[in-house]
Amino acid sequence: MIIAPSLLAANFARLANEVRRVNVSGADWLHLDIMDGHFVPNISFGPGVVRAIRPLTRLFLDVHLMCSNPQILLEPFAQAGAGQMNIHVELGEQVTPLLWKVKSLGKKVGLAINPPTSIAMVQPYLEQIDSLLIMTVNPGFGGQQFIHETLPKIQQAADWRRERKLNYRIGVDGGIDSQTAHECADAGADTFISGTTLFHSRNLAAAVKKMRSSVKKNSRVS
Ligand code: DX5
Ligand code: ZN
Fold it and tell me: Ligand 1: which residue has its CA nearest to atom 5?
């Protein structure tokens, strides 16, 4: 299982300290939400910030591009130190060239899907991706409530993975706490992105540990 704190919920005035907190928390990846004010109604940060934090951590950097035109951002984020870049399936005909571009940069590639989008939309790409990121809130803001109606999409993604003998990760992003992480794990998720729950807890390491043990309880994830 992968637990990835989402930096969006960190205190931006103390970013270096927040990254160091993650370093000693036992988390596996650091999730970085990139918002362009167009694909989503919010703006977060860009490659310059990723470049600045890269030397502060050895963690794998998982970049989530909530952007209408990721084409122009792939190289800058690759150079800034991204390990994986997730692009949204809602971009339609841009998706295939974007996936190939990420791969050609030598990075892992993820495909993200919003709550209202049918899971059938990701089916043509499953063989090409390292990770499927199932949004469990509508993207744009941290601190939202988990949308339970997304659980069948996780199950479907897990069924396809088993039937087609593929090995993409199944990530969930938005409103993830110990309880919802457990529900998602039961549905087949193995990668848990969590902002508010982890960063807003006084003891990040304890929060990561609690989430990990809650996922393990009665679930198939190891
Ligand atoms: C939502 C982002 C998420 C967000 C999760 O647009 O993609 O990664 O940071 O934050 P929480 O855990 O607060 O819902
Ligand atoms: Zn995200």
Answer: 174
